[in-house]
Structures are given as C-alpha cells and as structure tokens.
Input
Amino acid sequence: MSEELKRVLVVDDEDDLTWSISKHLAKDKDKYELICVNSGKKALDVLSQLPVELVISDIRMPEISGLDLLVKIKDYYPSTKVIIMTAYGSSEVHEEANARGCLKYIEKPFEISELRQLILEAIEQKKGFIGTISDFHLSDLIQMNCLGRMTSCLYVNRDDNKGAIYFSEGNLVHAHCNGLEGEEAFYEMLSWEGGNFSTKRGESAPKETIIKGWQSLLLEGMRRVDESKPGGKSDLASQQASLQKKINYILNEIISLNGVQVVSVFDPEGLPVASKIRKGADEIYKISEITLVISNFIRQVDQVGQELGVKKTREITIEFEDAILSLLQIFDKKEFLIYLAKNDKNLGVIRLQAKKYIRELSKIL
Output
C-alpha cells in the first residue's frame, strides 16, 4: 500500500453485505484500502493495529453496537471519521449518532454508488480558499473550528508573543504559548487584544493537554478576561453585563438543540433573567404566553420539595400543548433553567445536553 493510500473499515454482522460492499468497491483500490469485518470487537482489533481514516459501521450488532463503537472510536481514535449505516433510521437515531460525533449516516437499503460517494467525500482532502479576515475575535475563530469539526492548528501571534491552538474533529485538545501549555496557554492567548493568525488544516496536535469542552474553556476565558480589566471585580455594571453575556451564550447553545423551542433562566420569584426563542417558533411558545405557567411551575417545585421534606427539587416536567416543559434547578443555586421541547423529538438527548449546560450555569451564577 502506498504511503498516501488511506484505509476504510466497514463493520457489519451480515457477511453477505460486507462481501457485496467489498466486491463493488474493489474498483477504488487505487484510492483507499478497504477492510471489512463482521463485529465491533474485530473492528477495534483492526484500529489498535492500523491507522484508519474512515469507519463505516452498522447500528445493530451483537456485543458492541454501532453507537457504542462510535463512542470508543471518538475516545481512543479521535481523528478517525465515522459513518453510521442502519435500517432503523429515525430522527432519534440520527440525533444520537450526531451527539456522539458521527460524520454522516446512510440508511439501508442504499445504492452502492451512494456509499462510494460518501467514502470519497470523507477521505478526500479538499482545497479551501486562501485569504485574510480582519476584525475577528479569537473566540470567533475558535468556534468556527469547533463547530466545523475541524482537525487543524490555529497559529496566533501578537507582538513578540506566539502560540498555537490545536483542534481534533472539533475538539480543542492542545495549546502552547510563551512556555505555557494546555488550559493556561489557551487562557493567555484569549486575553490578547488583537494580533495575527493563520491556520493549517489537517495538522494534528503533538500531544493532548486539554480535556475540558471548548464551551467551558471559552466561558472561563471570558471570566478571566473580565476580571483582569481595571475595576473588573468592583464594577457591578460591568459584572452584570458580563454575566448576561455568558448566560446568553449558554442559552444560544441550548436553543440550537433539535426540538427545543424556548429556553430561559428564571429567578426564584418566577421572573425570566434571560430567554431565547427558536426562530420560527409558534406564537404559543412565546415567553410572554408561558411566563405565568412557569411561575406556577416554580411554586409547584417549592411545594413538592416541602411535601417530600427536602430543601431542593431538582427537576419537574409537565406537558404544554404539543411539547414538554421541563424545569431543572441549577446546582446549589436558587435560579432555574427551563426549556420547552417538542415531544416528538429525542427528549433524552435534550435532557442530557441541558444538564451539561446546567453545570456551566452553576459556575457563573
């Protein structure tokens, strides 16, 4: 195999399917090496021995399912892309696969030409535009790389200061500058006001020094920048503006989840601190229409907590029109995170993501 030839691993417990895929894709042997196995365990064996550019896996397999295999690949081989194929296609499966880092999915039965096109697109190194952008904040550039699931290096310099931030499939994994590494190097660069940057797509990190999620890193970086400004700790108006900005940033992340119509942070008295409404949401989901419901909801939480003899009730969910209204108390705080999601979506995934952001809210409130 030539040095440039990439490997594609197909995983499916149906022998007939892997044989058929192997036969029909043999004409692409000059573009990639194809390996077919019939279990998730065998796939992990291959991955432990050979670098693989792309894995195409069935969802339903004995011992290790396609989704579980996806998680293991993202944990141990983050640069390997994954395409899920399934005969059990649904919005829930798609959301679950996307949440775990799936590149694309393809539903059975599919045309072999469709699969071939997906493979070629996934392994092809596409040439992008070359140019300059000005007046961008470093946080904007970081979000572009993360949301685009890029594997790249962002080189940053300001005066005599130089640094680099590395991304792997959209995860921020390493940073260094001025003798610093990891999170501290990242926070140092985030504090620079202005400078120059360049990016190199496909460049892998020499090591992994960051495990925290990029959203958390940006929030912490913003907090540090605010506190480093003259009067930052004593200026109440500045602190409030910074707090509102951080809350809105988190709410923007939650409202982008598939199915969420409204998300809001409410104070203990039932008044909204900050709210976001999905663009195009029905009028019945407007905050002004459901504030009274939410206020009663918060009182219900207090009442249930008293009846149960506990100081805090973590979560209550009720039906609202064709949606589910969920109230979650923010850890060790008096405020509440409330979201309203269509009940035909994957509410389990939404709930898990919401709880992740509650942890972020608890750090800043």
Notes: Residues 307-311 have pLDDT under 50 and may be disordered. Residues 287-307 form the longest helix (21 residues). The longest strand covers residues 161-168. Residues 12 and 38 are 5 Å apart (CA to CA).
